[in-house]
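=== Structure Prediction Worksheet ===
Name of assembly: unnamed complex
Input type: mixed (protein and possibly other molecules)
Chain count: two
Listed entries:
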Amino acid sequence: MLTSLFTDHYELTMLQAALASGAAHRPSVFEAFARRLPEGRRYGVVAGTGRLLEGLKNFHFDDAQLKFLSDTKVVNKETLSYLENFKFTGEVTGYAEGELYFPNSPILTVRSSFAEACVIETYILSILNHDSAIASAASRMIASAGTRPCIEMGSRRTHEESAVAAARAAIIAGFDSTSNLEAGARYGIKTVGTSAHSFTLLHDSEEAAFTAQVNSLGKDTTLLVDTYDVEAGVRTAVKVGGPQLGGVRLDSGDLIAQAGWVRELLDDLGNWNTKITVTSDLDEYAIAALASAPVDSYGVGTALVTGSGHPTASMVYKLVARQDSAGQWIPVAKAAANKTSVGGRKHAIRQLNERNRATAEVVSLSEFSTGGPERKLSIPFVTNGEIDESYIGASGVKKARARHYASIQEMPGVARKLQRGEPVIPTIMRED
Amino acid sequence: MLTSLFTDHYELTMLQAALASGAAHRPSVFEAFARRLPEGRRYGVVAGTGRLLEGLKNFHFDDAQLKFLSDTKVVNKETLSYLENFKFTGEVTGYAEGELYFPNSPILTVRSSFAEACVIETYILSILNHDSAIASAASRMIASAGTRPCIEMGSRRTHEESAVAAARAAIIAGFDSTSNLEAGARYGIKTVGTSAHSFTLLHDSEEAAFTAQVNSLGKDTTLLVDTYDVEAGVRTAVKVGGPQLGGVRLDSGDLIAQAGWVRELLDDLGNWNTKITVTSDLDEYAIAALASAPVDSYGVGTALVTGSGHPTASMVYKLVARQDSAGQWIPVAKAAANKTSVGGRKHAIRQLNERNRATAEVVSLSEFSTGGPERKLSIPFVTNGEIDESYIGASGVKKARARHYASIQEMPGVARKLQRGEPVIPTIMRED
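=== Predicted Assembly ===
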């Protein structure tokens, strides 16, 4: 499917006016960055890059799209001719997917003609803003969950396509699996699921439902025990599943108290290996509160797919430099009021201490080294229009997950704290 | 594109176990409803139905999807055979798209075999929860804006496909137009847009940029005047565009104060007909605060596409009745803890007073009449698997927009208040 109309009308009217003035062809640099993190968050997580690169392959205009733009008079004939042959031929570099970011980190840099960089603006921001918001929330949940696996199960609470992207972002941030089948099919992500309350209600009794489930899915399945009465549900589950019953799921009530006595009941009944999954409206705080409860895994839905209070990463995409008519690079930036930014192409390094622990995000207008232990943050994604395929699909998700894990390990431990605070490392803007 | 894998894994494992137990074929009724509105909201707006019906046409399983489900062992062979021939053959009724809803309004009712209703659960909820959340927020913005048009421009702040659905939902709720081109192409929605700060920065001066824009897009275009200095920007805009300049856009700073003196400046310069559009992080409260400022239209982005603090409508989809093995209908409901609901198929009527103003949402387990002025809320969407095409595409959006307008007009005026409060009309659950 073509991705080129996932674009704001004004990108194409700007293109039209710039084609007419001749400025459309000026070599330009755009940067995507976040002016700040959501209030109280210690770090953000870059996600969506792999999806962006995949979509960029299909970012061109076919006859039907051109006809729409022509019929609705969005742009004139000259612009339609330009779009007819549109293919991104420039350069995209940026933070690896899964990497952490901080205020003013230059997350993605696009260098091309103004025309090309302008036309792909909306698409870039849609993907980075959504996927990074989800990954940033997911990463905090993983920090709260410690060694217990988290299952992403929020598909029903968000747009059907966002759900697929959210599952992908959650896996990058460390989730173990997802309920979303399309995400499994597209990205090779592990999917899981057993049954809902409707399955129990469908049958003539809870025992009949559990028997049907165990007969079909095996004794290692997880039975949902809170449709009627939790204690009776657990006893029936054990009666039906026996000592090899895989797990029970609790989806309502006071989960901390319940998990405690359900564990004891399971142990009393000899089901020491039957696990407990909890799933009712969890977020990073509820997960943290459950740390001392005998829970084996968490299912997270609404809070994950809505970014736990911050459903968008608020990244912007700004022209920071462009050539003038003499071919000289000119740094540019908006000056008015409360949205100032720094002109010029940025380079970023994560400064480390002698134990390879991050100490600062250092951003400069030239390529540089801090002189000490450090890690360069920008990698090439698109070179002369050639997209690096290794970041797309299942392999991209694996890479991003590994990158995220390594970047989190590199942070001071305070990064994992849920309490509101400043970014865990400062962003230092160098003068050179 | 097929929609059938926009589904949680557990829908298919439930299907498998129910096929094995024989219960899969029991005639069943599921209902989608919201237990409550987001805190303080006076009403919710149903949206997504047209998208759902369109997607339902493509809800079947092709070879690649079946191979995925087989390779990953999501389900067994018997279940794959069932899915191979899957087509929804049941009945869907519900609230018209654009209609208002309240706690426990039976928004969508699906009657079919358990198997069919179960398999489409996740997809139904994804669409209704997302689109209704956006439409509900959009409707409040329209109430705040009064007669001034609102432009949807949040595409860059949400997933690229959510953006299209959000634009559609905004139009249903009364927005005038969108920036999203794909929404224009799919649903015949009016798209608008002119230029961004990057366009000004691209050129050698603001005047050069404005000249390029006016030359290409005409004098009735809207110039963005806050890249450098707003006053100088307005003067340059008038110099370039003359008295026929269409508009200026303010995207930063104190919009209330700015709009005031910019209007005076425009008037002083003779540009009485040049309009002022404001666009910086507006939500329903900011729009209300601007009511007395001389603003002509509002561009709304982030707050719209994220549901203004409530990005999901939290609807659930519950089995409320099913037949037993003797063919008798049995009302069913979860009983445990904090998520109880009422079993049995619901019917809903909006009770009106003699001036056709709504006074209550009346819900009953049987078809009924209040005896006074009233409006039946449920309409047929799918009958014996036959989808009513009139709700799909551009015609569906038009119908939904008209329905929303009429339903809002029918409400007491307090519905338009932004202050937190109870639902504007009570939901009365009748005992019969």
